[in-house]
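Memo to structure team: turn this sequence into structure tokens by end of day. - J.P.
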Amino acid sequence: MSRQNYTFTSESVSEGHPDKVCDRISDAVLDAFIAEEPEARVACETFATTDRVVIGGEVGLSDQDKLHDYMEQIEDIARACIKDIGYEQDKFHWETCEITNLLHEQSAHIAQGVDAADDKDEGAGDQGIMFGYATNETDALMPAPIHYAHAMLRRLAEVRKNGTEPALGPDAKSQLSVVYRDGVPVGVSSIVLSTQHLDEALTSADIRALVAPYIHEVLPEGWITDETEWHVNPTGKFVIGGPDGDAGLTGRKIIVDTYGGAAPHGGGAFSGKDPTKVDRSAAYAARYLAKNVVAAGMAEKCTIQLSYAIGVSKPLSIYCDTFGTGQVADADIEAAVASVMDLTPRGIREHLSLNRPIYQRTAAYGHFGRAPDADGGFSWERTDLADALKAAV
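Reply from structure team:
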């Protein structure tokens, strides 16, 4: 019997966090190549520090001679990302920071493992294990701690960028400790928020007074009580932020990107990778399947694991765990998910329409728990497979 009474903590980081700046740039570069060539192969990594952004990685195009034609766009893409995030600091400004582009042609040895004369036999872009998770404790079928940790920072970003709270800066981190009773989230024992501010005269108490109404706004009514501990800018001033305060790198926030530690993670990051990389596409597929299992009422919570080998098209294994909440056997769910969706790399991309420029928007505030967009963004958050799953068991 799993524990029913406990406190669980998750954190989130804002779009201005140094690592998220890098994720954003990498995914923006990916979107640019996919917009030009939907089958482009991209593995883009970004590093950011004081006054400097370095972009590297591999790109595979049907005509590699065209790669040079696209390279001139990369610097403009990076500057546009930094500008939209809001960095205009003396030592990290979208107009003046130095940007170095080291992207180059994809390795032929990697490409040969993925390419196939028959698209159905197209191999996975790498080996690895990927996990998807869903729980009915929020409407988004996400764990409450990470769901609301994201919501806090999204709301603060909105009021910063629309001019309501001009004193806030782009860089921020949140941490939320959620109290569970009888397995249900019922309150918050502590709130941690560190947010950059542009006025050096502001104290921690000033910042708390500024942000508290927005935090109350996004958390469920009654979750914050007189016993809730607040730690807002606990170290004092936070004026120097972003890559000037701490270096950033693509792919360093994989728990923030997924389930806040409430579920396993295979270890592979998402940002900057095209959907032939199963680190990304199969993790999206696993979330899609787990969410549909829960949406179908087959379980209250569900983990799906998929595993792949480089150059091999079909998953090596499919594993399901419903933590004793399943209405049907886990083994039957494993068989059902394999029957209702083609889990080859090509099958995943086609089912979820992943060969389109939809990735830049995923770079901050989580890849999961977001509403599907009309243009196909967050397609893995649909629950359109629920009826097929119920019919398959």
